[in-house]
Fold this sequence. Notes:
Blueprint: H1 4-22, H2 27-30, H3 41-60, H4 67-73, H5 89-108, H6 112-115, E1 118-121, E2 124-126, H7 127-154
Amino acid sequence: xxxxxxxxxxxxxxxxxxxxxxxxxxxxxxxxxxxxxxxxxxxxxxxxxxxxxxxxxxxxxxxxxxxxxxxxxxxxxxxxxxxxxxxxxxxxxxxxxxxxxxxxxxxxxxxxxxxxxxxxxxxxxxxxxxxxxxxxxxxxxxxxxxxxxxxxxxx
Length: 155
């Protein structure tokens, strides 16, 4: 399983990759929808952001995603087509950056014992199982979606 340093490296990689995929794009570009079921770039980035709040809560036991943001960006939310409901792209990236810095600080103080603590979820039985899925697999999945959404924005 990954170490706290590897989780930090992964967050930094995802953040750099997101910034490469949004380079030169506008908020309007981030709202473009594919012609089949899916979601826009803005939603995918917001989704990563709210899940970071979720797994921060798994670590500290108190943090929770903002309920209004979860309604827009959480699992099962409707496709984000209303520009007035979407967080502006610049604000979204600022919030993602702030979340990343907070998480990196938390990961720096995370002990191996804490990672082994029980945390029952559908992805495993320990906190490490939970983090491994969300930091590594889940974020990479949504990062991959940004590639085709960038191409859509540039078309």
